[in-house]
Structures are given as C-alpha cells and as structure tokens.
Amino acid sequence: VSVRVPRTTAGQASQLHSQFIWVSCPTLYNTIYLHLLTLPTTQQWLLRRPNNQNACRTFVAGAVQMLDHIVSGATTNAIVMGRPPGHHAFQKPSGFCIINNAVAAAHYARLLKFQRIAIVDFDLHFGDGTCAHTKGNPDFLYISVHAQGISPVTDQPIYPSTPAAVMQVKGPRGSGVLNLVLEPDFGDDEFFSPPMRSKIAARLKAFEPDLIIVSAGFDAYTLDPCRQTTVAEEGGVSPEAFEDVTRFLVGQAQRLCNGRLLSLLEGGYHTNVLSPGASGLCRCLYRHLQGLCAQPGRDE
Fold it and tell me: Can you tell me the distance from the alpha carbon of 162 to that of 87, in angstroms, rounded to the nearest whole number?
C-alpha cells in the first residue's frame, strides 16, 4: 500500500527539524537550502537541482506520516523509500547525506509519546551522524552493523573511519550505542551472524523500546558499486540475506513493542538491470519488503 505525502505534512516536518537538528528556520525548504550552501564546491550541483530539496523534505514528511499511521493503529510497521540517505548527517551535510532522516523520525516519535526509540542500522558504513545525535540521550539506542578497517581496494580506512573509542556507549537501561563490526570482505554468513543477533536481541530487550526504526542500507549487496570500489571486490550480501535480517528485526519488534517498526532507506546504489529484469537495489528492496510482511512465528 502506498500513501501520497501531502504538502501540509511536509510543512509539519519543518518545525521538527528546526527544533531538534538544525538552526531555527521558518520552513523546512529554507533549512534544506541553508545546508546545501554549506556543501563543498564539488557538491554544489545539489543547489541547482530543486528536486533534491523537495526529495529531502518529502522523505522526512513521509516518515512523519508513517509514524502517524503507526500510532493510530492503521499499521504496525511501514517503510519510506526515499532519497537522499541520512545517517552521516550531523548539524551539516556529510557523505551523501543532507538530513538525518532516522533521527528526525525518532524525535517526532517522541512527540507522539513514544518514550524509548531504538535505531538499528545495517548500512555498509557506520552512521556517524546518527551516533552523534543519539549517544548521549537515554531515550535512544543506536545499533549499527557495518564494515570497519582498511579497505583492500583503496588501502585507506573505510569511511567514515570513526575512532573506535566513540563507537561504543553504554547508557542507562540499555541506551547508548552498540556497534558490531564486520571485516571488509564479509558475506551472508557474517552479516547478522547468530552471535551478533544474540547481542542485538539482548541489548534491545534491556532497552525495552516503544518503537524500532531501521536504517536500511543495501550498499553491502554483492554487486553494489559502493561496496566493490571502496570495501572489497569479493564477498557481499545477497538479497535473501536482507530478507532474513528484516524478519529478525520484525520479530524483535513483535516481541518488544507490539510490532511497531519504521524502515527508512539509507545506502544502496546498484541500479543496473540484471537478467531477472530488476536492479540489485530493487531485488534487495523486494526482499526487505517480504521481510516486513513476515507473519508472527516466521521471524527466527
């Protein structure tokens, strides 16, 4: 089921951003524009593409509307498939990210009286922006499963090369940051391995979230150009593995917060059409949707 995001909802999101993430601006459009001005000259092309500004605004507005549907009981989980991604965004844009969509959604969820929000991120890269926004707040738990180390392709630290000391934070009642690091050439067997799932389940149980937000990145996919050119030419994650991980997270939501889960798209850049007639990103998204629709009892 798809929902058209009205302009009024996008306007509603502006107050959310100015209050929690960036300097006060009269509209979300102005917020986006001001932050585009801070981009390096090499990325100023974003300024010349108004659709990018609209996309940022609409992505957050979509998350706001889906949370409204979840709190009303119209659905238990939902997904917003928008761009650009957000988990590298701090007070200013970083990486490919302009707005931290997951953090904005988490703060809006707090306005809806959800007391404790967990963000689980399975993008190829560490969400340094999300970590910075959430690590000192006892109402948030950030869990990231990502690649770390020296890239065998570039011989450089894998972006964003965040120091290990800031990547683990243990707050009260399970809040803080839990990072589970993978080697650059990881594949299906390592991605959300049983030991990792045990750690994630234990931390979520200790935290007792009212809502789980998933930062769903698919750039760990086997043929994704971001993975192949920056992390490792071999390895990678299959679309089927993304479905399996999604079922696991849906199962956690069913056990801990009455199934309440919101998925937001992060990375994933394989758009070449494969022999079955769909790009790698589309195949991963399809499997992710299959996982979101999993029935109770099929999540293990």
Answer: 13
